[in-house]
Amino acid sequence: MRAQPEASHFIAGTYRHDDSVAPWADIYPATGETIAEIRPATAAEIDAAFTAALAAQAGWAALPPVERGRVLRRAADILRARNAELSELETLDTGKPIQETLVADAASGADALEFFGGICTTLNGETVQLGEDWVYTRREPLGVCVGIGAWNYPIQIACWKAAPALAAGNAMIFKPSEETPLTALKLAEILVEAGAPAGLFNVVQGRGDVGAALIADPRCAKVSLTGSVPTGRKVYAAAAEGIRHVTMELGGKSPLIVFEDADIDNAVSAAINGNFYSTGQICSNGTRVFVAKSILPAFTERLVERTRTARLGDPLDPETNIGPMVSDTQRQKVLAAIARGRDEGAELLCGGEAPEMAGWYITPAVFAGVTDNMSLARDEIFGPVLSILSFEEEDEVIARANDTDFGLAAGVFTRDLTRAHRVVSRLQAGTTWINTYNLTPVEAPFGGMKLSGVGRENARAALDHYSQIKSVYVCMGDVEAPF
Ligand SMILES: NC(=O)c1ccc[n+]([C@@H]2O[C@H](COP(=O)([O-])OP(=O)(O)OC[C@H]3O[C@@H](n4cnc5c(N)ncnc54)[C@H](O)[C@@H]3O)[C@@H](O)[C@H]2O)c1
């Protein structure tokens, strides 16, 4: 098997698993070939992960921040040095084209480790003067944090959670998605190589039941989930039992609004990036493309013409820009959403087919004539399906863009400076773009409003979500009492 790790879990600095547990097959989505066999964690392995994490965390939190930061920055350097091999592994696990994984996955994880390795030295409290007396605050770690990942950006998600968690002095137990178990193990190896104490970052494998067992453990101080809204509801409820801290990075149905004065080619590029990158398996995708009526024909023609040039194929070929879906299950869900869209009366202008080739491919689909109540405009599809809706007025499009339970992201294309800021300020979304789409640098907070989530990843904001404030009142005089 091409990508078999030494064992399924990485706990207390070493690989291990219980041979008596039946494995599942980890499959390369482009061929259906089994590339590794992975075993779910047992209760004893989950216990070992908490024991190791707790033991490592106290000493780690006591280090001067600059020393913690140095370890994270070294890990960033190792990730970058191994980018080619990590990218190939990520492509095998997810089916994403190598031209994407080389630039967007381990590379973005390295950015997170470098960024949080730098700013953890600034995680300070404040002093509040109260006459003679004063209060100072300390930003303290939470303890052992649990990270649970989705399958679309496995190593990026692991790094986006581990980097701020460790920077703030916590330990982490990370459970990757069962579809993509491999690269988080590499991150665990690399952190140890960079100088992190054994047990600081552990990886345990499994499905939802293992995730649930991690959250239920009384030693879990926080859970950060990247996943769908239905899973988010379960994880949030489980976390509530133990009053754990939470970060929820959930799904979306985001609007991309193209006004009549937009640069049409740039807007088309953004629509392509915001719908078909990673074969459409991106939470923040702008799947509802609202186009001003006056430019609808020009925009649609250009979009379809360019979408037809997409190159499906072997994800390891550098020329391929559309890989397969992550699993056959996901492909079937997307094909069903496409069929429903046609039944509801939307017009399929191109794509939306499962080509006759090995692997779980779907050609990128563009629908026109989509209206607000169609399932295409309401449900998160999580595949290469773009819907065009037309609009006439600014107020109208803002109201329609906000008419969704999700609120992850939104984009606006216009050359009118004041309109751009005015519209963005009224959109109910946590991550927004003006004249671009889906750029997520580590320096910018990322996360959702409404059902799309709670808390933020990246930027300084993430450190707040991995630390808690202690206030210390300092009395400089005598203590008065009534008797
Ligand atoms: N907002 C973001 O940052 C972001 C990023 C990527 C993906 N997503 C979302 O993720 C979804 C696709 O990923 P997916 O199909 O892997 O999501 P999913 O919700 O099916 O699974 C996510 C993770 O949760 C685990 N899980 C499932 N049930 C659980 C339970 N009861 N307790 C604990 N853990 C449990 C799974 O094993 C997996 O590791 C989409 O909805 C997408 O929008 C969000």
TrEMBL record:
Q: Which SUPFAM superfamilies match?
A: ALDH-like
Q: Please, which domain of life does this record's source organism belong to? A: Bacteria
Residue numbers annotated as active site = 249
Question: Which BP terms from GO are recorded?
Answer: glycine betaine biosynthetic process from choline
Is Oxidoreductase among the key words of this record? yes
Report domain Aldehyde dehydrogenase positions.
24-472
**Entry GO MF terms:** betaine-aldehyde dehydrogenase (NAD+) activity; metal ion binding
The name under which this protein is listed is Betaine-aldehyde dehydrogenase
